Structures are given as structure tokens and as C-alpha cells.
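Researcher: We're teaching a course module on how sequence relates to structure. For the next exercise, students receive a sequence and then see the predicted structure as C-alpha cells, so they can try to spot secondary structure elements on their own. Here is the exercise chain.
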Amino acid sequence: MKVNKHINSWSALVLALTLVTGCTRDPKVLKQKHFDRGHAYFEQGKYREAGIEFQNALQFDSKFSQAHYELAQAYLKQNDWGHAYQELMRTVEISPENLKAQLDLANLLLAAGKVAEARDRAQTVLKAEPQNAEAQAILSSADASQGNLPKALNEAQQAIHMDPSRSQSFLLLAAIQEKSKDLASAEQSYLKAISLDPKSMSALLALGNFYQRQQRWSDAEKQYQAAIALDPKDAPPRATLAALYLNEGKKDAAEKVLQDAKTALADNPAGYRMLAEFYLAQHDWDKASAELASLYSDHPKDAVAGRMYAELLLQQNRVDDGAKIADELLKTNPSDPGAMTLHGQILVRQGKASDAVPVLEQVVKNYPDNGPAHYQLGVAYAANQNLGQAESEWRQAAKLQPTMIEPLRALASIAIHRGDQPMLEEVGGKLMMVEPRAPDGYIFHAQALLMKKDEAGAEADVKRAIAVAPDNSVGYARMGDLRTTQKKYDEAEKLYSEALQRNPSAMDALNGLVNIALEQKQPAKALQIVQHQISLVPNRSNFYVLLGQVELRNQDSAKAEEAFQKAVDLDKNNSNAFLFLSSVQVSRGSVDQAITSYRTALQSNPRDVRIYVALGSLLETRNQWQEAEDLYQKALQIQPDYALAANNLSYLMLEHGGNVNVAVTLAQTARKGMPDSPNSADTLGWAYYQQGVYNASIDLFQEAIKANPDNPTYHYHLGMAYQKSNNFAMAKKQLEYTLQISPNYSQAGEIKKILAENGPQKN
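Model: And here is the predicted structure for the students to work with:
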């Protein structure tokens, strides 16, 4: 039989494809292919790409021990300690004989402060290899971390005995000797480490750091320069040299080192970013902005530089510009945790905190060890008025990254809001340790000491704040506050003036000066002070708010309104300016204008619950109660426990046939938030009255009257409750008094009818 040659050719092609396809689908081949790619990427320093390939290999064999180990190494290179720990744990579960993994795991545990677990891992290695010097060194480090220096010293010497050529053991010995104050021996051990491994970057930097701690500046500089010469493309030695110059007060020299680094390390993101990071740390915002704009232009694929630039733009209130960068970053990598966190941060700044929460919750779910994401989630919760969850997230962020200052500052603000003295003292102390050259920790700690009447301790803290940051206004302003409480007004004025010399925009210092003038019955002087500062800083919205307040004290409502209007024109997000402006407009009878101002305020400040309630209260006076009710409900959607909105909404519902049970719940919320308010007592009493709980309502009405004896509504409500309780004598007394203090009271007709029907009766 004759066979068509085209069919034979096609069959051969199909067979070849089958063989090729069968080969490439072999899981063993594919996993090795991905593993080899990952290894190649790792050798090139592309650790993120390497990690992806190792993960791909594990898709074909979840028990591929070496892939787990190499993936852990990729995570370690990216400082992703949490995922590195997980992969190392998986490695030793599958291959407990992998001693390198056991040692890496021990080092991670030691760094995390889990000393006992680290020691266990090291001892596991020593059982398998009794002469393993690295494992012995881990035991030494574990004891040193717990302060047992003699034992640590002995174990370090044992590690050296096990392997006299191991440079790292001499570095460990040197560190222990330095802690033991044996500086001469420590220096010799550092030098021995370098002699054993002249190309050891860690040894050169360690000796340089030792010299820097001894303030042997020139010796330290030589070591750092040697480290740079050893590897001109490595960023840390240049960063360390710059830090040395800063410690010596040579800011220009530090800047020059980082400018050179940007040129020499043009292909190394860690290198070319250092100059921008330096400007940010120095709070040189103009240079930082220019540098980051340049980096973003030159390195558009550098997500870290993009995030740094976007965050600075947010700090400069250029939210829309920051949002554009965040969008580009998300287009490049939609699942990047940094870009997602930035997106959530921007949503909060755009007044969309409720949209930000699920975005940030997803980040912390996928990356539970991401401190910045936990911090920003706390910010989003706080913007949604959920301070309990905000505090929890900030505490988690501070736990994950103890050197991160933002969550500590946020926790301090919560402590101040609550009046929680122990918490504020604790957080202030942590900030002092984390950022000893910044004034914040000392200021918070001082506030905590003032709460427990320790003026001497508070003053010492504020003096330290001034000493570490003499060019920062905050220390002088806080010392001015302290002198004001001591009624040392002359000293306080000088301190506030010093603060304003350092920062002409320092609102707290200006407030201090104005308050002293008003306290001394000198409103004209207060006015002059504000006007002078406005002449220096003409576009500060809050300065005009303060000017308006002083004009009100001077009985000039027209000029006050003008000042508040200027404040609004300068900053549409200044809610206080709108509230003051509308209040002045109401006081002169321009209710329509005030309503318009409130509506304008809501357009720019859609999450400020005060504006909803203020507008709702004003609309109630116009009998527009349906819209007022809607405004109170919107306020409660933003802040469910906002007492004033709950109180007003409850009363409207009671007056206009709403659900009494819902009204009672709202009134209880209001009473909890405003326990000393006669208005909340009256509202809850009126809610109980409509539920038929008359005795409880009587107690609340009596409490309201005690606080405000001449309020006709309180007396009317009490009279009605007495009537329902069949106490006609007391009802008559309260209702008659209502008409006495307010003859034209809104319920006068009903009161007269009740009195006519029950007049002759007695209890």
C-alpha cells in the first residue's frame, strides 16, 4: 500500500511535537528550569525576580527543599524577614539536616529577640557538627544579648579555637570586649578580623564604627574610605562615611559624599537614592523635591523612588500629583504592597477613608509584617473615627518596626486625646530613644510629666528638646506654655517670640502670645501681635482665624467676618474658618448667607461632622427638619458615636413621629458621649417619656433643670412626665413655671388646656 508522503511528514511533525511537549511538561524538568533561572537571577542581584522563579519551581514540587532555602535567601536579601523565616522553617521541616538553613534560622531568631529558640537551633547544629564555629558563635551572641558577657566571651573564644581563620568570630569577640570596656583588646580583635580577611566589608565597617564611637574621627574615616575602595559600587560604606561627617557637624562634606555616590552608583537604586534620603532626613524639602523629581524622571521603573516622591508630594499637599504617580506604580505592578499602601494613603487624603480601609486591609492580610501598611491602615481607621482599631494598628506597626516614628507619634496623639498619662509617658520615652535628635519625644514626655504635676521633670525634658533641636520652634513654644502656667508672662512672651523667629508660621507660639495679651486684658495688643505676624506670613489661613477671634473680642464683628472670609479664601479645607464665619453671619441675622457658607464648607470638608450638625441645627430654626434629619444621619454615618448628632437626630425623631426605640438608642449614645450635658439628659428623658418609662424620665428632667433652671422646655417635659405619673400638683407647678419664664412658649396652648382640665385637682 502506498502511503502519502505528506501524511508521513505530518505524522513525523506531530510525533516530534509530542515528544517536545511531553518533555517540557515533565514537572521535574520544569521545576529545575525555574530553579536554575532563579539561581541565575540571584547571582545577578535580581532578588525579586529570583524569588518569583523559586516560587514557580515550588508550584511543581512543594517539597523541593533547596527551592525553599533559596527563596528564603532571596527574601533575606530584600530584608523581608517574615517570609524568610517562613521559608527557612519549611526548609528545615523537609530537610532538618540542612545545617545552613538551621544557622540562618538561628540568626533570624536571635535578631528577633527569640534567644532561647535561637540557642536551640545552634545546639541542633553542634550536635551534628561539634566543631561548627558559626553555631558556637550564635551561642555567644545569645548570651551577650542577655547581658552575660563573661559566658559570651568564653564561647566566642571557643568559636575561635574551633576555627582560628574565621574572621567573623573575631568581630564577635571584639564586640563583646568593647561591651566589657576592654577597648584595647577590642581594637586588636577588630584588626585581627581584618588581617584574616582583608576584603571583608563588614570587618572594615565594624572597625570604623568602633573608632567613631570613640570619637576617633580620622581613624574611622580611613576605614570607611578603605571600604569604599574595596567595593566602589557598594552603597553602605558611602552612607556610613556621610553619617560620620554629619556626626562631626560637616554637613557639606556629607552632602558631597552622597552626590558622588549618585554618580558612582548610577545603576544601583540604593546608591542613587541616598542623596534624596539625606535631604528628607535634613528636612530640606526644596532640595528633596527637586532630587526626587529628577530620580522619578531618570528612573521611572524605580517603584521605591516613585513612592518617596509621591509621599513628599502628599506632604506638600500636592495630592493630585501624588495620585498620578501612585496610579502609574499600580499599573506597573497592581499587587505591589508599597504602591497599594500609597494608594490607600492618597484615598484618605482625598476624603475617601472608607474606600481606603479595604485596600489597606488587603495589604496587611497579604503582608502581615508590613509596618507602614499597618500604620496607614490605622490612619484610615482614625479618619473613619474608629480610634480603637486605629490604636491597634499603630501598636502593631510600632511592634513590627520599633524605629518607625510615625506610629509612635500617632499613639502619643491618642494618649493626649484621652488624657492617658502613663501611655503618653511610655510613648514619649520610646520616641526619645528612637529619635534622640528630634524634639518630639522630649515634648511628649514633658506633657506626660505635667499631667502628674512634675513641673521640674517637664522643664528638664523641654530643655533637652531645645538642646537637641535649637533651630526648631516647638521647644521654645512649649517652654513658653510652661512659663504661662507659672504666670511668668514676661519670660513666656520672650520664649514665644523666639519660637516665631525660628518659624514665623508657628501657630502655637502665636496663640501663646495672643492668649497672654488677652489674659492681661489687652485686646488691642493682641490684635497688633496677630496683624504683625500676618504681615510676615500673609497667606496663613489659621492666622486669619485667630485675627477674627481677636476682632470678636474687640467687639468688631464686621472685621471678624472679613478675617474669617479671608481664612476661607486661603484654605477651603479649613473647617474652623467656615464654622466661625457662619457663626458671625448668624449673629448678624444673615441666616441664608450662613446656610450657604455651611454648604460650601461641606463641599471641601465632606467628613467634618461638626459642619453637618451646625447646618442641621440652623435648618431646624427654619423648620426644614427633614433635611436637618438627613444631615444628622450623614454625620452619624461618618462618626457613629458623635454625641451631638445622635442627640439632635433623636429629638427630631421624637418630635416628628419617628421610631421611638431607635430614638432611645440614639439618645443613649448622646448621653454616653455628653454625660454632663443638660440637653442630652432632656433628650433621653423625653425618649423614655415616649416609651412610657416616666420615673426614669423625671430623674433626667430634674438633672437637666438643675444644670439649666430657666430652660422652659425642660420644665415643660418634667411637667408632662409628672402628669403621666398622676402627680398633678407637681405637674401644675412645672407647667405654670414654663409659662412664667416663657409666656409665648411653643406649647403654651397645650399647657393652658392641661392646666384648665386638671387645675382643681390635687395629688
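Model: If you want an answer key for the exercise: Residues 1-23 have pLDDT under 50 and may be disordered. The chain has 45 helices and no strands.
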